[in-house]
Amino acid sequence: MNNDIKLKTITELLGYHFYIPDYQRGYRWTQHNVSQLLNDIWEYRNETDNQNKFYCLQPLVVRKKQWQDAQGNTIEGYELIDGQQRLTTLHRIISFLSRAVGIENFKNEYGKDLYTLDYKTRPETKAFLQTTDYNDTKPDLYYLSQAYATIEEWFTLDGNAIGRQGKNTFLDTLLPTVRTDNKLPEWSVQVIWYEINDASQSSEDLFIRLNRGKIPLTSAELIKAKFVNQNSFKEFTDEQKTKRKTQLIQLWDEIENQLNNPKFWSFISNKPFNSYSNKIEYLFDIATHKGNSKDPLYSFIHFFNEKETADTLWNKWVTIEEIFRALSFWFTDKNLYHKIGYVIATGTDINDLIHLKKSYPKSKFESQLNKLIGKVIPEDWQELNYNNKHEFSKILDTLLFVNVELTRTNTNENDFFPFYSYKNSTKSLEHIHAQNVVGINENKKEDWLAWLEAHLSILKSVGIDNQKVEKIVKEVNEIRETIKYEDFKDVSSKILSLIPNDGEDENEYLHKINNLAILSIEDNSILSNSVFEVKRTKVIELDKKGSFIPIATKRIFLNYYVGEEYKQSCVWTKTERDNYLKEMEKCITPYLVENEA
Fold first, then answer.
1. Region of residue 204 (left: phi > 0; alpha: psi -120 to 50; beta: else)
2. Can you tell me the mean pLDDT for 546-559?
3. Cα separations in angstroms, 204 against 20, 58, 140, 208, 553
4. Comparing C-alpha atoms, which of 50, 59, 61 is closest to residue 301?
5. How many Å apart are CA 39 and CA 538, to the nearest integer?
6. What is the pLDDT of residues 271-310, one digit of tens each?
7. Spatial separation of the C-alpha atoms in residues 531 and 116, rounded to whole Å
8. How would you classify the pairing of strands 4-9 and 189-195?
C-alpha cells in the first residue's frame, strides 16, 4: 500500500533512465498501433474549446532500480514493468519531431536530454534509438525502423500535423513549455505514473499478472492506490491516517461485495454484469459524470484535483459513500426500488436521480420521481402501434412500466420486479393473439413444420369440427416430408379456420398495445405467429420451469382478464383486451396526471 501514483507530463520524464528487464519481449508495435497513437494525440490537440484538460496515456508501472550500462557505468533510474511499447513509441516520435523542426541540441532546448531506454538482453537497441537507420536484421530493430517510417509518413498526410508549423504544434503538445505559475499548460500529454514501492512482489510476477489481465490497472485500481498510498492524507496525524485508510479499505470491500450481487447491479445499472472487473468503478463513473466517454481511465483522470488536501481527499471518498448508501436504500425500499429501477432501465441518467436526491427533501423526492416516470411514458400510449417501428421502444417502455407498477402495488411485501431477469433475458414484444402466418420465413421448412406441430397439438382440444380436425391432421402427416411453402400456406389456413375466434376483425386490434405483451423466449419466431392457445400452452410450460414471465404477461395467459364472461381459453376476447387496457390505464394515468401538475 506504499505504492505511489500520480500524473506526469512527458516533459517531466526528460532525463530519466528506464531499464527493460529480460522477462519482457522487445518492441513489437505495428504500423497500426503507431498511427493510432499519433491520431489520438492529434485529435485531442484539435478539440474545440479544449474539452479535455490533457491527453492521458495508459499507466507506466515502474520501480526504482540501479544497474550497469554497456560501458560499466552505474545508472540510477527505473525498471519499466509495464508501458514499454508506449514509452518507446513516444521516444521515436519525439526523436523524429526534434530533427524535423531543426533542434540541434535537445538538452539546450529543453534543459534535459530525452529519456533513455536500456534493454538488458538487447543492448544494441539503446544505441539504435538515437538513429534514423533502417535495420531488419533483428526483430526489435525491424519494428523500431517500421515505427520511425510510419511516423515520417504520418506527418506528410493531409489532415495530420503537416508542415513545420504542424510539427511544432505536435511537439509542443508532447513537450509543452512549463508555465511560470507552475500550472499545467493548455495542451499536454501525460502518463499515469505508478511507482511500486512494495517489495513483497517481484517485478516479474507483477509483469505477468498485469499482462494476463488478472489485476488490470483500471480507474478503480488506480483510484484506490491514490487513496491509500504513502502521500495520502499527509496533513493528518499517523493515527488519523491509519484510521481513515482502514475505514476506507473496509468499506471499499463492502461496496464491491454488494455491487457483485447481480440483483443489486441490475437495479442500478443497464451495463452487463461483467462490464467492470472492479464494479466500484461504476460509482466513480457516476461521481465524475463519465457518461458516454470511451476513455477507460476517465474516472481516475477526472476524480482528483491537481492539489488535494487531506480534507478534500476524504470528502471525495465521502461522496462515493453517499452515492452507495443512496443506492442501497433505494434497493431495499419497495416503492423507490420499482420507480427508480424503472427510470434507470429506460435510460434515465443516474446522476439525475442523485441530483433530485440532493435538491429535494424526502417528502418531495418521490413526487419528482413520479414526474420523471411520466416523461418516459408517451401521452398517446394507447395509440402506439407495433407496425410503426419507431414506436417499438415506446411500447416496450410502456409495457415494462405496467409490469413494474403491478409488482410494486402487489400487497406481497416480498414481491419485487426482477430487473436482473428482465435485463438478462431475450425479451420481445409478442402479439398476444395472431391468427395468421404472415411472419413465417418462406424459406425455412423447419419453421413451417414447427408451426404446424404447435397448432396441431392444440387443435384436437379446441377445434370446432372434429371430423375436419381429423382430416387436416391426416393431410399434414401425408405431406410432411415433401411440403412446399404453398402447401404450408394452404394447410395453415385450414387449421386457423378450425380454431375459434371472438368474431372481431383481427386487423382492427392486431398491432395495438392491448394485443401486445413482453415475453422472454430464446426462439420466438414460431410463437410470434401463433394463436392465443399455443402461446398460453408455452407460457404455462415456461412457468413450470421457473422462467421469467412478467406479471402482466402471466395474467394474460392465465385468463386473469376474462372477467365474468368466461370463454374458451384459446380465444383472446374483446372483453379481455378491454380489461387489459383498463389495467394499463389504471397503472399509467396517475403518473401522466402528476406530470401535468
1. alpha
2. 90
3. 11, 19, 21, 6, 57
4. 59
5. 54
6. 999 998 889 999 999 999 998 888 888 898 889 887 788 8
7. 74
8. antiparallel
Q: With H, G, I as helix, E, B as strand and everything else as coil, classify residue 123.
A: helix
CA-based nearest residue to 510, from 432, 425, 444: 432
| Confidence at residue 217, expressed as pLDDT on a 0 to 100 scale | 73
SS3 of 213-276: CCCCCCHHHHHHHHHHCCCCCCCCCHHHHHHHHHHHHHHHHHHHHHHCCHHHHHHHCCCCCCCC
Rg of the Cα trace of the chain?
33
Nearest Cα to Cα of residue 429 among 583, 553, 542, 544: 553
Cα–Cα distance for residue pair 537/458, rounded to 1 Å:
9
**58: helix, coil or strand?**
strand
* 380: helix, strand or coil: coil
pLDDT grade, residue 1 (50/70/90)?
very low
Q: Dihedral angle at the C-alpha atoms of 201, 206, 212, 214, nearest 10 degrees?
A: 60
Contact indicator for 447, 526 with CB cutoff of 8 Å: yes
Best-predicted range by mean pLDDT (375-384, 496-505, 532-541): 375-384
Mean pLDDT computed over every residue of the chain: 87
pLDDT tens-digit map of 20-70 = 998 888 899 999 999 999 999 999 898 876 666 788 888 899 999 999 987
**φ/ψ (deg, to 5) at 517:** -150, 160
Residue at grid coordinates 502521500? 231
Contact between residue 492 and residue 452 where contact means Cβ atoms under 8 Å apart: yes
Q: Please indicate whether residue 103 or residue 183 has the higher confidence score (pLDDT).
A: 103
Please, is 412 exposed, middle or buried when counting C-beta atoms within 10 Å of its C-beta (0-12, 13-18, 19+)?
A: exposed
Angle between helices 31-45 and 163-174 (to 10 degrees): 90
